[in-house]
Each structure stands twice: as C-alpha cells, then as structure tokens.
Amino acid sequence: MYAQSIQPVLVGVIVELVPLQQDHSSGLLSAAADGALWNLKATVIPGPDTIDGYMANALAGRQAGTVMPYAIVKRSTGLICGSTRFWKIDRADRKLEIGHSWLSSSVQRSGVNTEAKYLLLTHAFEVMGCVRVQFTTDELNHASRAAILRIGTSRKGSFAMSGSCRTDGSAIPSGSASSIPSGLT
Length: 185
Fold this sequence. Notes:
Elements: E1 10-11, E2 15-19, H1 25-33, H2 51-64, E3 67-74, E4 79-90, E5 95-103, H3 112-127, E6 132-138, H4 142-150, E7 157-161, E8 164-168
C-alpha cells in the first residue's frame, strides 16, 4: 500500500486539501470562528484554548503513520475554511477512515464538503489502494450525518464507542455494489 511518509496536496475545482502544518493554526482558528464552531457539543473543532492540542494530536498521528491531516483551502480566496483527515489508517488491511472533518459556517452546503470528500475517496481508492473506507460521525451530530448522506452514503448501523453513540459503515465509490457511509465532521 501507499508509502507512509507521502501526503500530497489534493486539488479540486473549489478546494485544495493541503497537508496540515503548524503554521495553519491561525487559519484554522479563523475558519472555526465563522460560526463559533468550537462551541458545538457533538464534534471536536479547535478553539483558542484547544488549538495547540488539536494540532499536536494531528501532527503526532501523521508522524506515527496513522493519520493524514489536511487543511481545507477554498481556492477562490486562498483561505482555510476547515479541516479533514484520513485516520485509523491500516495499511496491512488496506483500510482507513475519513473524519475529523469540519467547515466554516459560511461554506457549509456550498459544494466544499462534497468536493473534499470526493478528493479523499478518489485518493484513498485510486492512489492508496484501499479496499475499505469508512466514515464515522457522532449520532448527535445531525448536520454531519445529513452532509454525509447528501454525498451518497448510506447508514450501516450503530454501536457504542467510548461512551458515545456513533454511526458506522463502509464506503465504496458510487456505482459499486456496496454503499458509502458516514464521517466525523
């Protein structure tokens, strides 16, 4: 499977997914300020008091080879408008999850999420050689669940995980025999 140390920029028409770097902290905070997203209870979005830990966790995961974190940059403005990542990367079994995704309020339902997920799915299946891609979202995160369903996913079931309910499923690109499920936004 895909080399652990490579994390390319993923380029679409609307967005670029840029490998997350420490100097993206202020851009992420600005993006999260659009809607005061750090106040949401059903997801983890960095705020002024949590940005350092958020960045450390993401970058440590990349160093360990289990996470590929991205800043989502809107191409028309060049500004960061959110973040997403591949995580729980399992190279031996050729599977991973897409999650920890969030977007500024002003770009939600604008096509940014759809294109970002398309870029991630294409990269996972066509470049990384994954045979399974999973999205996971908190059962209480209704906006995330709706956004994931809008990109053509289907719910596969629920299970308890670390004391909170999560929606779980496996993803195959559209047109395949299986369906695509849900992710942490």
